[in-house]
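Regression check, glutamine case 541:
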Amino acid sequence: MNAPDSLSERKQTKFIIVTGGVVSGLGKGIAAASIGRLLVSAGLKVIPIKMDGYLNVDPGTMNPMEHGEVFVLDDGGEVDMDFGHYERFLNVVPKSHWNLTMGKIFDYVRQKERKGDYLGKTVQYIPHVTSAIKEKIMHVVSEERPDVVLIEVGGTIGDLENELYVEAVRQLKKDVGVNNIAYVHLTYVPIFAGTKEQKSKPTQQSVNILRQRGLQPDIIIGRCARKLDDSIKEKIALFADIEKESVITGLDVDNVYEIPLVFQEEGILKQLNEKLQLNAIPKMDEWKKLVSNMSRAPKTINIALCGKYTKLEDSYASVIEALHHAGAHVNVIPKIHWIETTRIEEGTLNVEDALRGMDGIIVPGGFGSRGAEGKISVIQHARTHHMPYLGLCYGMQLAVIEYARNRCGLSLANSTEINPRTTFPVIDLLPEQTTITQKGATMRLGGQDVEIKPQTNAEKLFGPVARLRFRHRYEVNPAFIEKLENMGLIFSGKAPQREIMQIMELPDHPFFMATQAHPELTSRLDKPCPFFHAFVRSCVK
Ligand code: GLN
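Current build output:
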């Protein structure tokens, strides 16, 4: 989207700082992304920066149960899942250094200290660490030259581990000028069960914590089950020393894509325009139409999502989003049914029962042997019962194993990830992975071009080349490609100049496609992922 001249000519980048208070899990990432969406729809270039307090360099080594999905960027960075929202809402392809972690910051400061950059000085949290944080922010600004930088400070105000970020964004006001920075604070406005009254005290206290750190909010978003009453807005405004119009409802909604529309209606842009001397006029009609399809579509389809972290929906966040994007375009509502594949292999859940009434099956990405046999049984069912199947990364590797076992007569076929001593290692480590011992950022990561085979389903979806995003250590073992293909399996996408199989499909099946990539990561509401789009279409039939 091109910025109108008057906007792109403006030299000064504006900063919007989003902090959260009261409780965690209020949806700060979504709130920030929603503000961003409004600005982007007005033609502005918006770049997100997320600051995480943990000491890991990135979330790549964390269990998805602990941290939710690891989001992989085109440049190969493994980042916080909030970047999923940013990619989906802001029409940007984020870069890994837009995600600051204390692990990265301390690494950077320590390296500078060893190089002698601070020679003669005692290296301190303030100013050295806070300056390092600001340096990282300004580096992004000078690289990207955005109209607006949207900075999300992780955690809840008052958390020890985020204090240095809070101090850095406080200092930023002096560096960039008071008219170029707006502080948005997201809080919680509870209503106790059995009462109707919206309570402002947690917000007041949270604003007090902000103020103790020298931050005065310009806008407060109060997350609440109901629109904030005028009286509560007045009360919050009085205590927080802002205009009543700067108190915005962060309404509980079923569908996060509604949030930009809620904010728009609440007049958040008027406040930001005034504060930052912007002239942004959002154009949200197309978005509004798609959002309305998401809840009002006339038909529902039942999708079995078969994995081992099904108790924590966050670990498959992008898969869920991608399904809903496709649903909005096909005008159906995908209803997701979580199938815990560890139960299938333990024998406490029967495949037939688990999949009864389903219109389509997805096996998403995964690691390790637990639950894998359960997934293979599910895939076999999809193949032999002609049910639409979409395999994502591990979901492709396991589909290849299933095919090798049950169609190619290699009954002992397996992945060396599951059984290192298998007789038929149809899935094996990528050659370059065999010497790697470090765990962080060592998988085959990031965006890669995929060469598409002519006259395949993949070609119908992508044309001659697709750009997809990867995160894996294992691959289809080239030694078995011929045998698999002779028995009918088609590898319809591969790495250019290399024997890495990236997309597979089965002919004579209503829809059976799988990819070594994670196409869910690049799906957007206004541009659904072709795999998901085609899969959802076939589920409707
Ligand atoms: N465990 C498999 C691998 O490392 C699949 C990874 C994934 O699904 N992201 O190759």
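Comparison notes: The first helix runs from residue 5 to 8. Residues 297-540 form a domain with the Rossmann fold fold (CATH 3.40.50.880). No diff flagged against the previous build.
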